[in-house]
C-alpha cells in the first residue's frame, strides 16, 4: 500500500475514526477483482480451525461468499492459518478478553452471511430465500430471528402525526439495506476496535509533572493516490483526502525549512510549488463543489439519477480548469457520455465513473437495524450501537451524507495536524515478486507524483539535505581529522567542525549555522562515513590493546600483592607454630615421661617435612633420657627386646614389648589360668627325667603342616631340649629334640 505516515507530538490518542471507517467499510460489499482488501475475512475462512468455522456456520472457501468471491482467486504469499493465529495472539496480548475476540469473529461471520442473503419478489411483497441463513445471522448477533427478518424486509417510518407504520422494501431496497447493514456492522466493529485499543494504551492518571508533556505519539496512515481502470466514489474520496493533505504537508515542510534556516542564519532560496487549493475547492467548496452537488442531488425530491447529477456537475463546473467530461471534451474517447468525468489532480488525471455515486453518498442505514443491534444480548455488539436506544419517533434529523461526513473528518484532521509537529515516513508497496523491477523515467516520475514526493524533492534539492548539531557531528567524525582526534584544543566545536570540513575539502558543499552544520549533497556524508568506517577497526584495535595492557598490569599488581600477603602469612604461621611448640615442651625435662604424653601442635603446610624431623629428634632425645637410667644388669634384656622389635617390626602387631619378659608363660597363672598347674606338673617330671636345669621359654603356638592344616600345640624350650607338647592331652610330649642338634 502506498501510504504516508505522520507522527505527531502532543496529539490526542485517537484520529477521526469516520475517515478510516469510511475508507474500509465502502469496500466490504464491493472489491476489485483479484484484490484481497479485507484479510480478516480470508484469514477467518482459510486460517480458522474446522471447529471455529463450524460454530460460525462457515466453510473454508471464500468463493462461496459474495463479499469475498472477487478476491478468492488472488495469489498471496501469506500463510492464512499462521496469520490467523498471530492475530488471535496479538489481540490477547493487547488486552482483549476471549469473549471480545469471539464477538469480533462472530460479527465478521455475520457480515459474510449477510452478503449471501438473497431476496425474491412475489407480487408486491419481497421474501428471503432460505430461512437457515437468517437463523445463523440471528445466532451470531444474539438477536431474534423474526426481528432479523423484519429488519431486512421492512422499514419503520414515523408520520408527521406521530403514527408509526411499517413500509415493505422492494427487492432493490432490500438489497441496498442489506449491504448498508453489512457496511455499518464493519464500520462499528472497526471503530470499536480502535477505541478499545486507544483505551487500553491510554496513560492512566496522566500527570504532566510526572510523565512530561511530550509523551504522546500519534500515527496517521494515509492511503496514496488510487487510479484504477474503474474509479468510483471510494477513489474520489481517497484522492480528495490526498489533495487536502498534500497542501498541508508541503506548507509544513516549507515552513519548517524556512524557520530552521532563519534560526541558523542560512540564506533561503524561494521555492515555487503547485498550489492545489484550486483542486480542493473544486471538491469541497460550498454550493459549487462536487460534494455540495452530490448532497443536493441526494436531498432532492423525486427521481434523481447519477446521470442527472453528472449533468449538474457539467453545468456548474464547466469553466473549472481542473474539471472535464465527455460533454466538455467530445473528442476524448477515453470517457463515455453521461458516465465519466475527469479531475486533474496534482498527481495526475483521474477519470471517475459516476455510476453508484448517489447510492454510496446516501449510504443511509435504516433505524430498524440500529435498534436490532442495540437489543442484542451480546454486550460487545450492544456497546457498538448506542444510537439504537432511540425510538423511531425520537429520530427526526436526517443524517449527513457519506461525502459530507468524510469532508468534516478531513477538515478536523487537517486542523489538528496544522498545530502539531509532524515527521514523515514514505512507504512504497513492493511488487508481488518481492524483487527489484526496473522502470523507465516516465513511470518513475508517475510513481513519485502519486506519492506526493515531487515538491518534497524540490524542497530538499533547493536546500540542504542533511543538518546536524556541531557537537554531534564532531563526536561522529572527529577521528577523521588529526586536529580533532582524540580531543580538540580549539575555542569551540564549530571551529573543530570547520577543521574537519577543510581537511577533506568540502568547504563549497556546506554552510555553517549558529548551532548546526548544513550539508548540501549526500556525497559529502558518504565520503566521511567511508573514512570513518575505515578508521573504526584501527581505533577498536588500539582501544583493545590499551585496555588489555591496563588489565594485564592490574592483574600483575594484584598477583604481587597476593604473593606478598601469602609470604607474610606463611612466616607468621611458622613463627606461631614454633611459639606453640616452645610453650608446650617448656617443662619436659622435669616430666616423668620426658614429654612423651605431650601432643604436638599441627604444623602448617610449609613445615610438614621439618615437623617430622623435629619429632624424630625429640623421640631420640626422649629415648636417650630413658636408656641412660637403665641399670647395666638389664641392658642385655633391653638389647634382646630391641633385636626382637627389629625382627618383628611390621610382622606382628602385639608381641609383648610393652611388658616384662616372663620366659615361662605356660606356668604363669595370668597367661594360662586353667592349664598352668598341669604344665607345672609335666615340666617337673621332664626336669627330673631329662635333667635340664632351667626353662628358657614356654608358650602356646600353632603348627601348620604341608597341607596348610593348622593345629594348636605347646612349645617348651629348656637349656638342653626343645619339646613339642599336646595341650589338649595334658601336655603330652609329642616330640623331643636335643638343643645342640
UniProtKB/TrEMBL annotation:
Keywords: Actin-binding, ATP-binding, Motor protein, Myosin, Nucleotide-binding. Residues 1-533 form the Myosin motor domain. Residues 650-741 form the TH1 domain. SMART domains: MYSc (SM00242). The keyword ATP-binding applies. SUPFAM superfamilies: P-loop containing nucleoside triphosphate hydrolases. Pfam families: Myosin_head, Myosin_TH1. It comes from the Eukaryota. Residues 410-432 are annotated as: Actin-binding. PROSITE patterns: MYOSIN_MOTOR, TH1. The keyword Transport does not apply. Belongs to the TRAFAC class myosin-kinesin ATPase superfamily. Myosin family. This is Unconventional myosin-Ig.
